[in-house]
């Protein structure tokens, strides 16, 4: 029986993780849950799972959460409220901490889980990208981070086929997003509603928008480099609109191992919770008796420059990846509020990254990384306002 803490339990990853643990009550006990603001959803989940503690990031919602818990008949559950609440729960030593929070705000919880010795089932790719070496330095044992991001789960599964010395390249697949095939000129006028129509996955607003700009793939290239210790120059991206192959590893003898499955998150989440074991049941497999065509195409870096920019910030390292991510988080909000166009998102991120070259930050401490994150947010906001 593994004890589990689920951060971001009210989101897309969090609710699917709860589905997995509820299907396997003999394998998992949920200690704690955390959310940003959704106290009603959190209280309902706490009642279903019988957890000991819940956290809400919005400090003003602690009393509302207590009332919702009492109404759900679960008074007695500990309530933690405020910006440090998720990190508090993450650091309490559950066997597994699933980080399903969105954004760089997931950095402290990621570090807290690792420092407490828990296995970190990592969906919150932003914390690894922005924290980079700080997160790597907090790792105490092999396999302490188990990737939940589907591409990286696929790579981790494929890597079981060979040793690190036998790996030549990692190949990360990309859907291409809802605007695949469009030119830069056509992208100028796409709307937020169109950007939220991901071809295959129902996900939160930020990651769905990042899939449309390809910033998600940029983050994932850096994530793969950091997780698997493969140079950025040997992490490729291929557009595969069906997303049946979730990513691949090419080995030195010319063999490629790919992991395939329907485009859903249940398998990566289940593996994140139970690694290295597979649970049964989790999801249905691909029906190989049905005719199907799977396409593969190169990425259009002119229309979608986000991956090229991510490689640049990944090579620059230091606080550059944190700046890329933070500026993007601001621009995603600005796009959805109507303040900027779709193509302005990556253009603005690029301008903030360029400006950062003149005043690089200190990546050797969490405070330094968060200062760079805050600097990039201010800079992006100024550009958006201007
Ligand atoms: N969804 C997917 O299929 C995939 C997601 N990921 C990654 O997983 C992470 C979560 O994505 P997704 O589930 O789609 O996102 P959602 O927007 O659906 O959920 C985000 C979760 O984080 C909580 N949250 C928001 N702000 C804070 C905060 N300041 N402190 C603590 N918790 C907060 C939200 O709470 P509330 O509901 O109260 O706002 C919610 O529970 C992201 O990093 C994403 O890139 C990776 C691969 C696939
Ligand atoms: C499910 C998952 O891991 C997401 O990151 C998804 O892969 C997004 O796909 P694209 O960014 O390729 O559209
Ligand atoms: Mn992914």
UniProtKB/TrEMBL annotation:
Origin superkingdom: Bacteria
Enzyme class: oxidoreductase
Binding locations of NADPH: 10-13, 36-37, 124, 126, 204
Catalytic activity reported: 2-C-methyl-D-erythritol 4-phosphate + NADP(+) = 1-deoxy-D-xylulose 5-phosphate + NADPH + H(+)
Entry binding sites for 1-deoxy-D-xylulose 5-phosphate: 125, 150-151, 175, 198, 211, 216-217, 220
GO MF terms, alphabetically ordered: 1-deoxy-D-xylulose-5-phosphate reductoisomerase activity
Binding site for Mn(2+): 149, 151, 220
Residues passing through the membrane, by range: none
SUPFAM superfamilies the UniProt entry points to: 1-deoxy-D-xylulose-5-phosphate reductoisomerase, C-terminal domain (SSF69055), Glyceraldehyde-3-phosphate dehydrogenase-like, C-terminal domain (SSF55347), NAD(P)-binding Rossmann-fold domains (SSF51735)
Gene3D superfamilies the UniProt entry points to: 1.10.1740.10, NAD(P)-binding Rossmann-like Domain
Domain DXP reductoisomerase C-terminal: 261-378
Cofactors, names only: Mg(2+); Mn(2+)
Entry keywords, A to Z: Isoprene biosynthesis, Magnesium, Manganese, Metal-binding, NADP, Oxidoreductase
1-deoxy-D-xylulose 5-phosphate reductoisomerase C-terminal domain boundaries: 145-228
Enzyme Commission numbers on file: 1.1.1.267
Magnesium in keyword set: yes
Function: Catalyzes the NADPH-dependent rearrangement and reduction of 1-deoxy-D-xylulose-5-phosphate (DXP) to 2-C-methyl-D-erythritol 4-phosphate (MEP).
Name of the protein: 1-deoxy-D-xylulose 5-phosphate reductoisomerase
Origin species: Myceligenerans indicum
